[in-house]
Amino acid sequence: MKLSVKFTKPRKRVLLAGAVIAAAIIITAAVLNKSDAGKQRFFNTDAEYVEGIDVSQHNGEIDWNKAAKATDFAIIRAGYRTYGDGNITEDSRFRENAARANGAEIPIGVYFYTQAITPDEAEDEADFVIDLIKPYDIDLPVFIDFEYPYDSDGNATGRMNSAALSGSEIADILNAFCSRIKRAGFSAGVYSSSSLLNFNIKTSALNSDLFIWVADYNSKVTYLGKYDMWQYSKRGACDGVNSKYTDLNRWYAG
To answer: CA of 178: how far to CAs of 15, 118, 132, 141, 210, in Å?
Structure first.
């Protein structure tokens, strides 16, 4: 259910001499479950959390005017790297979703599904996202989505899995993407599951200013570290989103 909250815009972006000039309002606040007190506070509310959705081309056409009345924010997939041949691909509905969400005045962030196996590849992914999102108002962070695909037998597969990356190597890849995003003037963060955050990623090596978005479909988050947003359901529903299921999230904002 949508809360009555005021969104605190972190920036208004303008294009000047081909560069993105960003101005961010930084409010130092100790926020529940946040890993750093100095991070941007996006929502002005006394509530513990605000509700949001994340969507991709798999959710089909969205009525963003309806969605904006039903939820507080949305994270939209910008694209992905294929786990077989490693091609960087734009989400087929990103431009439509971003433009219509902006028109409905719902705060949005974006995410990119990575299969990078080196920091250089992660920077290429970040550059792709930066170029893609320039025309839109991106109010919330840009997240790198770190997860392994699974085959029909339930085994992890794909180029990233085959690379057998160490926890430190994964952290280097995630930091490379996020550092590039931040240099372009956006907030940045990491999306992953509690299991991967606990056992695969060396989270102590992640940059301290990153937002952490954790996927965990248990009754509570089992990730042992601090986090900012919880994807608590992949079988939810939201007015305006006509797919069978919609991912639901809580941003700990108060």
So the answer is: 21, 14, 16, 10, 8
3-state SS string for 38-99: CCCCCEECCCCCEEEEEECHHHCCECHHHHHHHCCEEEEEEEEECCCCCCEEECCCHHHHHH
Hey, what amino acid is at 122?
A: A
Backbone phi, psi, residue 161, to 5°: -65, -40
Tokens of 251: 């941003």
At 166-189, the pLDDT tens digits run 999 999 999 999 999 999 999 999
> Residue 126, SS3?
helix
Q: Looking at the DSSP assignment, which residues form a beta bridge with residue 81?
A: 88
Angle 94-95-98 from CA coordinates, rounded to 5°: 80
User: For 67, phi and psi rounded to 5 degrees?
Assistant: -60, -40
Q: Are strands 142-145 and 108-113 parallel, antiparallel or unpaired?
A: parallel
Mean pLDDT of the 80-88 span: 95
- Whether pTM > 0.85 for this model: the answer is yes
Query: Which class for 96: exposed (0-12), middle (13-18), buried (19 or more C-beta within 10 A)?
Result: middle
Query: pLDDT value at position 62?
Result: 98
CB 195 within 8 A of CB 167: no
pLDDT for 24: 32
Mean pLDDT to the nearest integer, 96-118: 98
Q: Which helix (H) or strand (E) holds 114?
A: none
